[in-house]
Design goal:
Layout lengths: L2 E5 L3 H13 L3 E5 L2 H10 L5 E5 L1 E2 L2 E2 H11 L3 E6 L4 H9 L4 E4 L4 H15 L13 E4 L4 E3 L5 E3 L2 H12 L5 E2 H8 L8 H19 L5 E4 L3 E4 L3 E3 L1
Parallel strand pairs: 1-2, 1-3, 3-6, 6-7, 8-14
Antiparallel strand pairs: 4-5, 8-9, 9-10, 11-13, 12-13
Length: about 230
């Protein structure tokens, strides 16, 4: 599995990015400081790509990129809040292969990782290979993860997954979900929906030992971030 090292001191971004890349089929390690980066390079698996934040509490990404370049042959993606072209030039001069601003979406960052891996010939997995797919079995109300661990779904969980998977990675609106999950003569609201989803996520994670690829899109609804098939 292709190994990615994320060096980012913002916990939320680090966690979201790590989760997203894991779901995309990469093995991921994280570091929150320059010190932890050096430690990961010395002791951990050698990364094919390092995603490097420019502003770390104990180091500067530009200098770190130069330092990494002197010892490691990995790809470097610089990640910064700054969008100005001086920084971009400085980023490239310091050895970064790709320079991204932080408002890039997780998908854009993932696309940058893949394009860099294609360039370096390190892409060992295929994003659309059948092995990456989650399978929703409509006969048995069963969800099977790419690692072949599976779980039985309740009626509500199955209805939720069925809508989510039929959106093929698109965002499924809350209203549509609430409407579909509401049984006649029963009250159902947003809180019920969130409760079903959080229970389902825990269930997926405990049975499959994988992060549940269900993401909240704030103010809109939910999306399934892995590839899936209904059969
Ligand atoms: Ca930072």
């Amino acid at each position: 599995m292709t190994h990615i090292l994320i060096v980012e001191d913002e916990p939320r971004l680090r966690k979201d990015l790590a989760g997203f890349l894991e779901l995309s089929g990469f093995s991921v390690a994280t570091a929150a400081t320059a010190h932890a980066l050096r430690q990961a390079l010395a002791e951990g698996d050698p990364p094919a790509v390092i995603i490097l934040d420019v502003g770390l509490p104990d180091g500067n990404g530009f200098e770190l990129a130069t330092e990494i370049r002197s010892t490691h042959a990995c790809g470097i993606i610089m990640l910064t809040a700054l969008g100005d072209s001086d920084d971009r030039i400085r980023g490239f001069n310091s050895g970064a292969d790709i320079y991204l601003v932080k408002h890039s979406t997780l998908r854009e960052i993932e696309a940058a990782v893949r394009s860099l891996l294609r360039r370096t010939g390190d892409l060992t997995d295929s994003p659309s290979s059948q092995d990456d797919r989650w399978v929703l079995d409509i006969t048995n109300w069963q969800l099977t993860a790419p690692n072949q661990h599976s779980l039985k779904l309740t009626a509500a969980e199955f209805a939720f997954m069925n809508i989510l998977c039929s959106h093929k990675g698109g965002v499924c609106q809350r209203e549509e979900l609430v409407e579909t999950l509401t049984r006649p003569k029963a009250s159902f609201d947003n809180r019920h929906l969130d409760a079903i989803v959080s229970r389902l996520r825990r269930k997926i994670e405990s049975r499959t030992k994988l992060p549940a690829p269900i993401k909240v899109v704030y103010g809109v609804g939910y999306t399934f971030t892995a590839s899936s098939v209904i059969q």
